[in-house]
User: Fold this.
Amino acid sequence: MKISNFDFKSQNKTFIIAELSANHNQDIEIAKKTISAIKKSGANCVKFQTYTPDTLTIDSKKDDFIIRGSIWDGKSYYELYKEAYTPWNWHEELFAYAKKEGLICFSSPFDNTAVDLLEELKTPAFKISSFEITDIPLIEYAASKGKPIIFSTGIASLDDIQLALDTCKKVGNNQIILLKCTSSYPAPIEEANLRMIKKYSDDFNVITGLSDHTLGYLCPIIAVSLGARVIEKHFILDRSLGGPDSSFSMNPEEFSEMVEKIRDVEKSLGKQNYDLTDKQIKGKIFSRSLYVTRDISKGEIFDNSNVRSIRPGYGAHPKFLKDILGNTSKVNIKKGSRFEMKFLKK
Assistant:
């Protein structure tokens, strides 16, 4: 498998991804300076996230849409993503800037329009975030483009992982990378469970690695010693810049140290099982599910304008979307309601 000029078969190296995420503070010049620092720090790749607040959720103050139990407590999903997103009109310029710096560049799409944008920019790969691993329609569409698909598994059960991989293979895409991930921000080191990196490799016969939210570089270094071929860490010029992801992002000096140092700590090795921790189970609320996105009248036809796969994860599973579209509602439904299969007219 290749991602741009990085050949996993011929290169006996770890593919190091620096995640820009929200660490540009809506300033493209900060984004460019960060990309330059990423290159100097020794990364192979810079990764963005491609969404808008409206492609990821809806603007609602209902309790479902208020974040609880995280560093973003009290904000609505819409408010967080409005603060954190990378403007779409930056993408072409930032892709070109990264290429000029000698960095591979790709992104995490969060809906089909993002996939289309990244295809126009000739992205060499797609990254599916932890909370989108249950968004089967998105995975199917991204995988159909024939590019490598990288999954983070932060809130994924064994069944979630298997369904995501099967979805790729169904469209003829076997270029798959699985990254062990703990979806806490920052993540406790005792929940890193790095032994799963080898288990993923054994169980699924794919390239494996670590998308890491622990503080420092201990876990990435141990992960490499356990066979990880890919390491992903959030990168920021200076944590004093603030922003949604600043508290768990590495600065240039720390990132440089990460690629040079090896540490060994027993408690970080974890156990080989697919059981989810309580925090991971709670984290499923960040995953995609089906919601009513505008008021629906009894007898109205369900279509892509009134039922969507969005965050949070309280509604019906996204895998049912194809079964729902084209059917008729047997009740009146308010915007922001969790979609339930009982709404379908039999």
